[in-house]
Amino acid sequence: MSISTSLKEMVSLYCYRIEMHAHSYPASSCAKMTGEELIEELHAHGYHGVVLTNHYIPVPLTEEWVKDFLDAFEEAKAAAQKYGMTVYYGMEMTFWDAPSECLIYGDMDDELLRVMAEEENPTFASVYQKLRSPDRLFIQAHPFRDYGTDDPQVPLSPEMIDGIEAYNMSITANNCVHLAVEYANRHQIPIITSGSDLHAKDQVGATAILTKTMPKTTQELVAILRSRDYLLEISGKPLIPYDFL
Ligand SMILES: [Fe+2]
């Protein structure tokens, strides 16, 4: 058997496609698709699941915001049911102490949001300290993103995160993917992910993670990420994120 044949067989085992970074309107005011539209587009592009990662900006929470944030999961889940797709819980959190954002993968509910809101000016360290758990992951989003302004995003200390979204494929900024991948390699960051940072229809399909089994819950998805037994996909082409699976 040639190397290419065995590689093809190996890759074909990773047949479930999951988008790890997506926003919906109105929970994310910058998003151009509702949860239902997001699911329809992802289904049309062959995805089996998506983590909804709407923005969380630490300002005093309003009832309206909490409702929009939690309703977004329900709307997406209802739409996903039609296509046999799965929606996972997540958020993209902004912090006051660094020009950086963090994807949090894990179950979200009213109580968690209120615990997060207890702190007036949460820092990465304080939130990570308070909320880190085996069932939850903190993945720094696009750690080297450069908007062309004076404050490019900066990578956090490896001890403060579980992983990095080395391959953020958003077209709205220069994500300096080469720097993020080099950083992940140099610091042996435990978990490497990719995400399309979906806000609009023309961004669907840029990237995915590929899994061998379909995680039924967010906890199962977190376990797969922790196991590092998955592939990434960029524009339909598979990519091995680690030296050895
Ligand atoms: Fe995002």
> Can you tell me the CATH topology?
TIM Barrel
CATH class value: Alpha Beta
Percent helix, as a range, is 25-40%
What's the oligomerization state?
Answer: single chain
Low-confidence stretches: none
Number of helices: 7
Structure description:
The protein has 245 residues and is of the alpha/beta class. It has one domain: Metal-dependent hydrolases (TIM Barrel, Alpha-Beta Barrel), CATH 3.20.20.140. It is built from seven helices and eleven strands. It has helices at 3-12, 35-44, 63-83, 110-117, 124-131, 177-187, 218-227, and strands at 16-22, 49-52, 55-56, 86-94, 101-105, 137-141, 163-168, 191-195, 207-211, 231-234, 237-239. Strands 1, 2, 3, 4, 5, 6, 7, 8, 9, 10 and 11 form an eleven-stranded mixed sheet that branches. The longest helix has 21 residues, at 63-83. The protein is globular. The two termini are 20 Å apart. The model has no long low-confidence stretch (mean pLDDT 92). Bound molecules: fe (ii) ion. Fe (ii) ion (FE2) binds at residues 21, 23, 92, 141, 197.
